[in-house]
TrEMBL record:
One of its GO terms (biological process) is cellular response to phosphate starvation. It is found in: Cell membrane. The chain holds residues 171 to 439 of 439 of the full protein. It comes from the Bacteria. It catalyses: ATP + protein L-histidine = ADP + protein N-phospho-L-histidine. The lineage of its organism: Bacteria, Pseudomonadati, Pseudomonadota, Gammaproteobacteria, Pseudomonadales. GO terms for molecular function: ATP binding; phosphoprotein phosphatase activity; phosphorelay sensor kinase activity. Its EC number is 2.7.13.3. This is Phosphate regulon sensor protein PhoR. Keywords: ATP-binding, Cell membrane, Kinase, Membrane, Nucleotide-binding, Phosphate transport, Phosphoprotein, Transferase, Transmembrane, Transmembrane helix, Transport, Two-component regulatory system. Residues 41-258 form the Histidine kinase domain. GO terms for cellular component: plasma membrane. It comes from Marinobacter oulmenensis. Member of the two-component regulatory system PhoR/PhoB involved in the phosphate regulon genes expression. PhoR may function as a membrane-associated protein kinase that phosphorylates PhoB in response to environmental signals. The keyword DNA repair does not apply.
Amino acid sequence: RPHLRLQIQISLFGDNDRLIVAKDVTRLYQLEQMRRDFVGNVSHEMRTPLTVISGYLETLVDHADELPKKWQRAIHTMADQSSRMEALITDLILLSRIETGEQTADDALTDVEALIQQICSDARALSGDKQHSINVEVTDHRLLRGDESQLRSAFSNLVFNAVKYTPAGGRITVSWSADREGAHLSVKDTGLGIDPIHIPRLTERFYRADPSRHKETGGTGLGLAIVKHVLINHDGSLDIRSEIGKGSEFICHFPKVRLVERQETHEEV
Ligand code: ADP
């Protein structure tokens, strides 16, 4: 027998009256779990044949100039589309793993400062000819208790999005700070911005503020869903502020109990 899942809502009236409503959401919870397992399994099954197709396509691309002209374009298009599909499957597998929350390495310590330095240096390579100025600002040097690989996925999705949605020459600032409330990782850009009506739905799978935009940028549409679930696994939350034509800021908040002082390690020589 499955565990009973209840959703409880408590409303307060006046000084002493309370209305408590308990709703049985067991079936809903099971369906959600089935959907997650199904997507995870299908993605896994698709990965192997796709790896074979991509492998052969790579060989064909390497020898494309030996083939008739009309085949060359077809082969390049097939190779592009198969790498898009590979990216999509990788993100689907990652999302279904993160969604369960079961494999989160919750005792690990992550050096966020070093992590964002690495991500930003990858982002500079991605920016290429667009020559964004990508800056890191760190005002707190403590470590964050949390799964480094999940945090890397979340932060790199935010930074790479900033690169994708910011025109050439724009500025991107990644900052790590803490105050009385907790720790904050902010990714701010001077890019295209997002209409406020889209903001509440941005972390849904495949939701896009402007579908024509993603054709040029070629993302999987799962980036912000991954960010959302990584934050749930770390008791965090996401704040999105944006203005069309001016830019956007994505802020990940973490509770302060997750901040841990660095221990200086003195190695014996
Ligand atoms: P995608 O792969 O389409 O980028 P995401 O889940 O990462 O998918 O983002 C969802 C949508 O949010 C994007 O399609 C885009 O419309 C919008 N978006 C995300 N980041 C930014 C940003 N920094 N500036 C403007 N729009 C953004």
